[in-house]
Amino acid sequence: MSRPDIARLALALLAGLALGWWLRGRDAAPPAVPVAAVAAPADGAPDATTRAIPDTVPATDSAELIDNLAATRELLARWFPVLGSGDAHDGPDYSAERVFYDQFRLVDEALASLRPQTPGHTDLYVVAFAGDGDENVFRNEVEYVEKLFSERFDARGRVVVLENNPATVETRPLATWTNLELVLDGLLEQDRFDPDEDILLLFMTSHGDEDHDLYVGMDNLPLDWIGAEDLSEILNTRPFRWRVNIISACYSGGFVDGLRNSTSMVITAARADRTSFGCGANSDITYFGKAFFVEGLNQTDTFRGAFEIARQLIADWEAADEQQASEPQIASTPLIEAKLAQWRSGIRLGPPQPFAPAGAPAPSNQSSAKSMKQ
């Protein structure tokens, strides 16, 4: 179940329980229900920032409906951390207005730091997009991709990271529809990118739904989700001839048809009607991120080779966890395969890059993905 699905389910339970308490309170005052009778979540106590839940949650009359709503929300938060931790009235510890005001500056700075393209030479430019700002797993992935392509695939100075994460609102542009378009347009300016010569790699990681929309959000910021048709229009109306599109999300196979063409490669973490695995508050990297980037691209220098490694690893992990197979997808053509071979022939391949969560020191061995659905 995806994060938005969990949130909708939890909110429905909240409304139902609160209404039930209210209706019962109109006729009689049932005994108090000890909180101890409610099972704690499997992963232990709630976040330390969450308000203490009273020793009892009394059934009350309609005059106390609002208090019941708050108490119910706190109880649900013990099972559904995606509803947020901390006081229900607390906001983020940054100014949303200032964050939005800073976006043009942050995008400009990211573009200004890029190296210009090399005339007569095929360069690879990477745009990495982490849509969900409420789980660090997506930040971990895009920052690892930045490290991997900078150090191993000779793309230092040609990577732009867009990420939604409270820890990086002052240093990284947000992963938003608007910023994605600003960066793509910026690549085409000031000789940064030659659409006929260079390759654009766009990696997007987030939650996805059955309607093939990518979740884009952080705290209470009003951000627009990006659907399969939206992304196709964003890319197909711009003159990027050579493209590699990598989408890591549930149901991401629904993006393939709109993005594929004779000079593009499309790779997704799941087929159009399947979930993928490995996200969540307790995970450092998704199954697909670990299998394709950490394992695959550290063993081979080809995207197709990395995909085949990833497909087998993911199938093994899902079978071991008795999960329905996500079935990652790939769509490619001889033209883009030949262009990628031309790019590889002109770079100096660096050593494998170990994975570590964002902000942590590099480990001696690679991290393991946790078994949680995207």
Tell me about this structure.
- By secondary structure, the protein is α/β, with parallel strands linked by helices.
- The chain has 2 domains: 3-83, no CATH class; 96-345, Rossmann fold (3-Layer(aba) Sandwich).
- 37% of the residues lie in helices and 11% in strands.
- The chain is built from 11 helices and 10 strands.
- The chain has helices at 3-27, 65-79, 96-101, 103-112, 136-151, 177-187, 228-236, 256-259, 287-299, 303-320, 334-345, and strands at 33-34, 56-57, 124-130, 159-163, 199-205, 213-214, 226-227, 242-248, 264-268, 329-331.
- The strands form 3 sheets. Strands 4-3-5-8-9-10 form a 6-stranded mixed sheet, with helices on both faces.
Radius of gyration: 23 Å
Shape: globular
pLDDT average, as an integer?
Answer: 81
The side-by-side strand order for the widest beta sheet comes to 4-3-5-8-9-10
What string, H for helix and E for strand, traces the elements in order? HEEHHHEHEHEEEHEHEHHEH
Total count of helical runs of at least 4 residues? 11
Task: List the SSEs and their pairings.
Elements: H1 3-27, E1 33-34, E2 56-57, H2 65-79, H3 96-101, H4 103-112, E3 124-130, H5 136-151, E4 159-163, H6 177-187, E5 199-205, E6 213-214, E7 226-227, H7 228-236, E8 242-248, H8 256-259, E9 264-268, H9 287-299, H10 303-320, E10 329-331, H11 334-345
Task: Describe the structure concisely.
The chain is of the alpha/beta class and about 375 residues long.
Short descriptors:
374 residues; 10 strands; disordered C terminus
